[in-house]
Specification:
Strand content: 5-15%
Helix content: 40-55%
Bound molecules: NADP nicotinamide-adenine-dinucleotide phosphate
Order of helices and strands: HHEHEHEHEHEHEHHHEEHE
Shape: globular
Distance between the termini: 38 Å
Number of strands: 9
Structural class: alpha/beta
Radius of gyration: 21 Å
Number of helices: 11
Amino acid sequence: MPGTVANFFNAVRPNSSNNRLGVPSKMNKQFSSSSMFLATTSLHGKVAVVTGSSRSIGASIAKCLGDHGANVVVNYVKDAAAADEVVQAIRSQGKGGAIAVKADTSTLEGGQFLLDEAVKTFGKVDILVLNAGVMGSKTLSEIDEAFFDSHFDINVKAPLFMAKAAASILPTPGGRIIFFSSSLTAASTVTPNALCYLASKGAIEQISRVLAKDLGSRGITVNTVSPGPVDTPMFREGKPQSVLDSIAKQNPLRRLGEPDDIAPIVGFLASQAAQWVNGQNIRVNGRLRVIVFQYCAMATKTRIQSNLRVQVPKVEQPEEIWWDGTSSTSGES
Ligand SMILES: NC(=O)c1ccc[n+]([C@@H]2O[C@H](COP(=O)([O-])OP(=O)(O)OC[C@H]3O[C@@H](n4cnc5c(N)ncnc54)[C@H](OP(=O)(O)O)[C@@H]3O)[C@@H](O)[C@H]2O)c1
């Protein structure tokens, strides 16, 4: 039909005869317009590598991908028994296969070894989920080079080089890379001890943005998942129950996130149904609202009680800040 937006773009695109908006030419063969709605979240026959998947969010992702039919490489560094449990859980679902691979994915060698083991066992890699990460707590005056490196090695450097290695073996089109950041990168107010963690997560968000364009040209999608507070050992570390309760209450859903709240979005991004989702940073946080005044008051009290090394800025007026960076007083919600 003349005059439609789609016709306009198709007209200005070179070689547009075999191409239509929203469905790249190679994918036209997979989905005719009548079968488009059958685009599936099944991962049957796919191979997924999930870094740091012996417990917490990574374990839930591995099980979710296995439940969708993928063969999953479960990665751990310390806890072999926990990794084996995840493998058994996936195998017992009877949909996808699984192996556990010990590899330190804070190193380039560890990351390469993990990919090599995946190819050796399953013959290929379709999906790379870069979940492993660390979150330490030090302010500017406390950080040293080793602390900085420990964050950037596992949160930034190794994921970048794993993405580089995977880019040459992922299917084109159809490959999937999913990075992990945190909703905190968009918070208006953060505590100073989050310096290295958030600097590293900010870096990974930018890497993801750039690679989405670079690898997107080959049909590999690159996205970032940014959870809010999720009840895992990483999140609980150093926080008294009173602070955990306070953060939970501030969520509209009145609880902390669970690993199973995060895994399904990864399952979706890994699937064919998400073929047109690229370069996105998806904040999965239950729409957490941080009431800065209450949080700071609670944290200050807690610091006195438990001698936590957290410096909390003084807040004169109560202000509502949403964790996605918008303010309730700005009219955005
Ligand atoms: N929890 C939250 O509130 C939250 C919020 C925002 C973003 N995130 C992000 O979500 C991701 C997962 O966080 P989580 O809370 O699930 O973490 P977690 O509870 O600390 O679990 C970490 C997992 O990574 C593995 N791991 C740690 N170091 C590793 C290494 N060098 N090589 C390979 N595996 C390693 C651990 O295996 P072992 O047990 O064998 O060491 C474990 O399976 C991280 O990127 C984190 O930044 C978490």
